[in-house]
Specification:
The chain folds into two domains: 31-74; 78-146, Sporulation related repeat (Alpha-Beta Plaits, 2-Layer Sandwich). 42% of the residues lie in helices and 18% in strands. The protein has helices at residues 37-74, 89-101, 125-135, and strands at residues 79-86, 106-111, 114-122, 143-146. A hairpin with a 2-residue loop joins strand 2 and strand 3. The mean pLDDT is 80.
């Protein structure tokens, strides 16, 4: 007859010590160790290209900010008279046209959600003062501001 074996087949199944259920053996190899040599090189090249593109883009943005700062530094000594600010662009343009008809040089700027109507360009505040007094008769909230 058949002899009875006193050992279990541990080479096919392993038992957990707490519940006796099958627990598969999962190898704990890191991702980077499973990649072939040439694949590592390709990933490294792609990473370098990505880093260089991002750093180039950041450099371009910083260059734009620097150019804007240089232009605004030149205008720091320039003043204008802010006549009014409007939410509606058509109304601002109509007021600008009426100021132009009066012989003034109006400028219209977009600042946030508002359209700002300004008149003139002056080198200092004292030279803008006579025009400010004249414009305050029509526009009560006029003020001198930097460009």
């Amino acid at each position: 007859m058949a002899e009875r074996q006193n050992y279990s087949q541990s080479e096919l199944f392993t038992q957990s010590s707490d519940n006796g259920h099958y627990k598969p053996h999962i190898p704990k190899n890191p991702f980077f160790l499973r990649i072939r040599g040439y694949e590592k090189i390709m990933l490294l090249i792609m990473g370098l290209v990505l880093v260089s593109i991002v750093s180039f883009s950041m450099g371009v943005e910083n260059g734009k900010r620097g150019a804007f700062a240089k232009n605004s530094a030149a205008d720091k000594n320039s003043y204008t008279i802010q006549v009014a600010s409007f939410k509606n662009k058509e109304i601002a343009l109509a007021h600008a046209q009426s100021l132009k008809n009066d012989g003034l040089a109006p400028m219209v700027f977009a600042k946030g959600n508002y359209i700002i109507l300004c008149v003139g360009k002056f080198s200092n505040q004292e030279s803008a003062q006579p025009l400010l007094i004249q414009l305050q008769r029509t526009y009560a909230g006029c003020r001198i501001r930097r460009l």
